[in-house]
Amino acid sequence: MKDGFNTELQKKEGVMTKWICWITVFLLMIGLGASAQAGSPMLSATPMVKMDKKATVSLVGSGFKPGQVLSIVITDRNGITANIGAYLDPKPVANSSGEFFTTWKSGRYISKKLVKDGVTVLKVMDDDYNLLAHASIAFVKGDVPPPGKVPLVSATQNIKMSKNAEATIIGSGYKPGQEISILITDRNGISSNIGAYVDPKSIVADNAGKWSATWKCGRYVSKKLVSKGITVIKIVDNDFNLLAHNSITFTK
Predict the structure, then answer these.
(1) If we measure between CA atoms, which residue out of 47, 68, 52, 188 comes closest to residue 122?
(2) Integer Cα distance of 205 and 151 in angstroms
(3) Do 56 and 89 contact (CB within 8 A), yes or no?
(4) Can you name the residues that pair with 199 across neighbouring β-strands?
(5) How far apart are the C-alpha atoms of 213 and 198, rounded to whole Å?
(6) What is the C-alpha separation between 53 and 13, in angstroms, rounded?
(7) Residue 233's closest CA among 198, 205, 204?
(8) What is the pLDDT of residues 24-51, one digit of tens each?
(9) How far is it, in rounded angstroms, from Cα 218 to Cα 195?
(10) Which domains does the chain have, with CATH numbers?
(11) Which residues are registered as beta bridge partners of 1?
(12) DSSP three-state, residue 89
């Protein structure tokens, strides 16, 4: 029994190690550079999760106050904001370094049809339900590659709403020469390709599978196509298959 327990523990530690390696790469990417986001709370999550009743999501946070007790909420498919704390293990509390690691047993939400196929945003809140950080997850019906094989995208996390606002968007882990498009869902619920306001106009992964672009989002702010709060960005290929995703907070 003891040997079986140790074997299972080693398997979990192995999966966690792979996850931490992936998340380290992700956090380094979000640097944009690191000085711009230094000290800001950040949340990262398993990027793609297969819809299954036993599904789990790994969550990693950093930049929080040591000892801070946190809540994580989602907006379910019915538009209701729900605290997922009852299905987090362990409870998210920042350690002495301001970091936490927890696992969300999301299979419960899948089996109850509270999350659906597509991108879901997670929000980290303090005791007064002030937004501290956020991340996105794609729930998919088919098989998903392991964390280290999933293309990544990072973006400027917080943008002040103005007519001159810009967001830096960076991708890594794509096929060399792959052409991609960037989509958002505007405040009217309409998905739109922001290519006309992205520089460069044509985004192609380089030989290392990387790319970068600047979104002139001030146009969307002035036309009231984005509003205060979180906007999800999606990276798709020429067939509009979802490759990666992330989220941006627009603030006043």
Answers:
(1) 47
(2) 11
(3) no
(4) 214
(5) 6
(6) 22
(7) 198
(8) 555 544 444 333 455 689 998 999 999 9
(9) 14
(10) 2-148 (2.60.40.230), 151-251 (2.60.40.10)
(11) none
(12) strand
Is the peptide bond prior to 171 cis by the omega test (within 30 degrees of 0)? no
The answer, as to whether pTM is greater than 0.85, is no
CA distance 23 to 29: 10
Query: Mapping DSSP to helix (H, G, I), strand (E, B) and coil, where does residue 30 land?
Result: coil
Q: How far apart are the two ends of the chain, measured CA to CA in Å? A: 57
| 189 Cβ neighbours under 8 A, 6+ residues apart | none
How many alpha carbons lie under 13 Å from residue 13 in its C-beta half-sphere? Answer: 6
Token code pair at residue 150: 């999933």
Q: In sequence order, what are the residues at sequence separation of 6 or more whose Cβ sits closer than 8 angstroms to the Cβ of residue 163?
A: 218, 219, 221, 222
Is the distance from CB of 57 to CB of 104 less than 8 angstroms? yes
Are the CB atoms for 205 and 180 separated by under 8 Å? yes
Tokens read off for 213: 């672009």
Nearest to residue 12, comparing CAs of 47, 85, 4?
Answer: 4
Cβ contact 110:116 at 8 Å: no
Cis peptide before 145 (omega within 30 of 0): no
Grouped pLDDT means (10 residues each) for the chain, 252 residues: 44 48 51 49 92 94 95 86 95 95 95 91 94 93 82 91 96 96 84 94 96 96 91 95 93 92
Please name which of 125, 48, 136 lies closest in space to residue 82, comparing C-alpha atoms: 125
Give pLDDT, residue 11: 46
Burial of 238 (0-12, 13-18, 19+ CB in 10 A): exposed
pLDDT of res. 75: 85
